[in-house]
């Protein structure tokens, strides 16, 4: 593992190290938010469909 001189932070140990290396994490944050929203929408749609099917079965 490579350490940035004078920082005491090892590269590859998390977001802090990405900031030290100057890596752009905006795309990762955006992708994470999009995936969370998509997952929430799919979960809502699935639960709504299951609820509708169970009501018809009764």
TrEMBL record:
Lineage, top-rank taxon, reads: Bacteria
Bilayer-crossing regions: 25-43
Indicate what this protein is called per its UniProt record: LPXTG cell wall anchor domain-containing protein
Give a yes or no for keyword Transmembrane helix in this entry.
yes
What are the entry keywords? Membrane, Transmembrane, Transmembrane helix
Q: Which organism is it from?
A: Lentzea tibetensis
């Amino acid at each position: 593992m490579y350490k940035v001189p004078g920082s005491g932070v090892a590269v590859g140990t998390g977001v802090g190290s990405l900031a030290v290396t100057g890596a752009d994490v905006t795309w990762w944050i955006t992708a994470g938010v999009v995936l969370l929203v998509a997952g929430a929408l799919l979960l809502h749609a699935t639960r709504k469909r299951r609820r509708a099917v169970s009501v018809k079965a009764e």
